[in-house]
Amino acid sequence: xxxxxxxxRSVAIFNLAFLYLPILVLLVFSFxxxxxxxxxQGFSWHWYGQLIENGALHAATGNSLLVAxxxxxxxxxxxxxxxxxLERLARxxxxxxxxxxxxxLVIPEVMMGVSLLLLFVMADMPLGLTTVIxxxxxxxxxxxxxxxxxKLRKLDSCLEEAAADLGASPWRIFRLVTFPLLRPAILGAxxxxxxxxxxxxxxxxxxxxxxxxxxxxKVYSMIKSGVSPEINALSALxxxxxxxxxxxxxxxxxx
Amino acid sequence: MKLYKMSVLSLVLVSxxxxxxxxxxxxxxxxxxxxxxxxxYVSPELLTEFExxxxxxxxxxxxxxxxxxxxxxQSGATGxxxxxxxxxxxxxxxxxxxxxxxxxxxxxxxxxxxxxxQRLAFDPEHRYxxxxxxxxxxxxxxxxxxxxxxDSWAVLWDPRYTGKISMLNDQREVFGAVLRSMGxxxxxxxxxxxxxxxxxxxxxxxxxxxxxxxxxDQLLASGDVILAxxxxxxxxxxxxxxxxxxxxxxxxGGTIWADCLVVLKSSQKKELAMQFINFLxxxxxxxxxxxxxxFAASNREAQRMVSRQVRENPAVYPPADLVPRLEWMTDVxxxxxxxxxxxxxxxxx
Amino acid sequence: xxxxxxxxxxxxxxxxPVSSHRMTYWLLTPGVLWSVVFLFIPLMVVGVIxxxxxxxxxxxxxxxxxxxxxxxWHVVYARIFGQSLVLASLTTxxxxxxxxxxxxxxxxxxxxxxxxxxxLIMIPFWTNFLVRTYAWIFILRTEGLLNTLLLGxxxxxTPLDLLYTDKAVLIGLVYGYLPFMVxxxxxxxxxxxxxxxxxxxxxxxxxxxxFRRVIVPLTKPGxxxxxxxxxxxxxxxxxxxxxxxxxRNMMVGNLIQHxxxxxxxxPLGSAISLILLIIVMAAVVAYFFVESIRSRQELDP
Lengths: 255, 349, 301
Known about the structure:
The structure holds three protein chains of three kinds.
Chain A: H1 2-29, H2 46-53, H3 55-88, H4 91-102, H5 109-122, H6 129-154, H7 158-165, H8 170-199, H9 202-207, H10 215-224, H11 229-253
Helix pairs in contact in A: 1-11, 2-11, 3-6, 3-8, 3-10, 6-8, 7-8, 8-11
Chain B: H1 2-26, E1 32-38, H2 44-54, E2 57-63, H3 66-74, E3 82-83, H4 87-95, E4 129-142, E5 165-167, H5 171-181, H6 191-204, E6 208-211, H7 216-222, E7 227-231, H8 232-241, E8 245-248, E9 255-263, H9 270-281, H10 283-293, E10 296-297, H11 300-305, H12 308-311, E11 327-328, H13 335-348
Parallel strand pairs in B: 1-2, 1-3, 5-6, 5-7, 9-11
Antiparallel strand pairs in B: 3-9, 4-7, 4-8, 4-9, 4-10
Helix pairs in contact in B: 5-6, 6-13, 7-8
Chain C: H1 2-12, H2 17-49, E1 53-54, E2 60-61, H3 67-73, H4 75-107, H5 111-126, H6 129-140, H7 145-153, H8 166-190, H9 194-203, H10 207-235, H11 239-244, H12 252-261, H13 266-299
Antiparallel strand pairs in C: 1-2
């Protein structure tokens, strides 16, 4: 009995280590004074300093943030009503329409990127920041729908009905009853969609145009040019940011 | 919780502000020049002078092969102003109507071109393209690990070096290497020869560690590979980090290439683009570029200005006696499709 | 509960069911319209182009042709589907072997610790995939952390040649999708009645028999769900083989990118994409099928 317990625990810890060690390694070596070696050569903030001076990185970060904000906003505007609408449907229709709306979650990202690229080419639309935003909204939409819908299901519709009985218009019902109840989920969805957009590479890769380089795209070209502690430093920052955003999002969704 | 919400809100506001600030700078049509170039050619410091002189921003995007450049342009990335295709790709782009005609008066530095770069076959009058940087393709190797010193493309097929060889991730160059090793021209168009070349490459694949066009200098310097098929410049970079590294153009011959500055027809800032080209061709700027990027400048005066170390490095400035052995890559027309296919099949083997 | 509330709602709505429907319509239209324009129409465009021909230098010529599909069945291209299926399967198996004990361990913790572990497992997944894959480049290269460590400890004498091999791709894939295996396994194991395990232990002395004959069959739907959740994305993986494969270990995702952004054969690329999509959708349908069995199983065990 004890053997098995110990064995299970060690496997579990191994798994956790496997998941977190690479991230920790990146973090630790971002402070390594040496450029190439994997041996510790002394502590240094040098590479973080390089990051701050890197102008192209600033532009890329700005682009990423802009795309994330706009595409998240769009996804919210489209997704919250869609989630509410889905809940009102009969079970059958829910499955069909829900499947349709959540399709981007299962399609390989390469396919989404490629199909969007073709759409823009056929529509003669030049690639640029706009096409990136449009693309990001496509996969942010299901993220918002899933999160909001999960909360909606747990809500007791008695409150909404009571408001309706009292003669409130649908908009008032939403504003004064539904929205406050959904607030944690909505905030959680915002954070999640924001993170997903910040981290997206593949779709952006296909539909980005001149001057539309986002942070992941910049990191990708840095990686292709070789290993560098600067990338480690940048990675460490990105990981810390994502972890915080997602951690908070998950916490919010539990309320 | 309230504090957290406020911080989230402020993050959002800050990001919008930041995004807007950066966006205003990089919108096409807003005194921003979009320069689409090889990842090896990026040196922001060299451009700050131009930015200050003309009060513009130069935004750089990169690619790592000619086919990638063409694909990106064909996919509707129309915001680029200046780009740098290689010789044969210039021909293709002219055929496809992608290039704007250059105004000779706007680019006076054309007069300073190297002898052998004037009147190039694909655009003898420089109506569309002006050579910028040029050089050779050969093999970078660690002389401490490769004995005897290689002089033939065949060394890349030597099983003694299995797992320590890198080839360029470049369709025409890789086929160029294998075709030369077979004693053929690198511009063959008949499918049988191309197929035979492909088979030889497939036989080589188990020995190849990676197909890399971008960081093989690092791979050489760190010892991940000891034989690297590559352009001279990155090998010269690796030489600095590891002195035992040497460069050789095999006896069967190799590529002589010239990457040319062109203005895209879809550009909205053709005048600025041509000023930029003229700037890059300026003697002093060209010399600095050559010194920094370790590629041979097309400006003949610039060659005299670079440091001796750079000028006498055969990986950067090919010695004159080498030139007759070298072959220019040309557009293979319809056969390009055969090469595209063969390259894909090699990659997925 | 839902039915009741909906009828109550429509009654409370002044007895007018039509306006309720209209409301639903207005709520759904924007999202659905967006999906149609930016998801379904593009997919149809891909389908249409898969039957066209490529121009000499690239681009599309509108000439109907089945050649692309014929080419995909050509040995060379079919091979890459085979390679991808193999890699995806291996990834799935390894994830299962690693994930099952992990899920089993978590299930037996207190509820608060369960929540902590689950969150810990999910968080890395949501951080940037690019960065996490780069970490493996850093670790696996010849002068990377792993080799430095092993050489330093004297375990090996020459550096391991890991980076840019299919082993590196496999490690990257397992790393990326392990959390996807753990969660469904956990969900199923949670519902497992410990009484079954107790009874089995009373009857069989052997730990392994208990595992094989009781736990596995009862958790089979969870196992299959987890396997599909790992298999499907690994099949369409792009970044992992791109960064860790050294441009020589391609998977279907890389081939598609290659056809579009290097070889410029959009019709062929589209045909390959469509076939990948069909395979993926088949797996997704299988997943939902299994899930419905699993949920029905929970209603009457």
